Amino acid sequence: MPTDFAKNLRALRLSRRVTQAELAKALGYGYTAIANYESGRNEPSIGDLARIADFFQVSLDALVGRHWEETAEDFRWRLLSPWERRTVLDFMDQLAKKETGQFR
Q1: C-beta atoms surrounding 100 within 10 Å
Q2: Per-residue pLDDT tens over the stretch 5-46
Q3: Where are the domains of the chain?
Q4: How many helices (H) and strands (E) does the chain have?
Q5: 51, 70, 102, 104: least CB-packed within 10 angstroms?
Q6: Alpha-carbon torsion 18, 19, 24, 25, what sign?
């Protein structure tokens, strides 16, 4: 059964629209390494975990599922592309303007 890391890695990769081969190449791995991580067959070293977290710009805790309740919101935010983040922030600005009567 896949670990939290395996599930989180797959979710991150899919949300960023990165193939297993593309991620492996970016990290300097063989083409099957990511598939083995996602299936739970292999687990990365701490150094490799840090490189994967850096690639996706997430914390190690979020990547491995530690303290999920504390990092879930941050983890979801980081899954968004920069364009999606900007869209959410623009929407929030519009809601705030509406609330204060500045929205037209």
Answers
A1: 8
A2: 999 999 999 988 999 999 999 999 998 999 999 999 999 999
A3: 4-99
A4: 7, 0
A5: 104
A6: negative
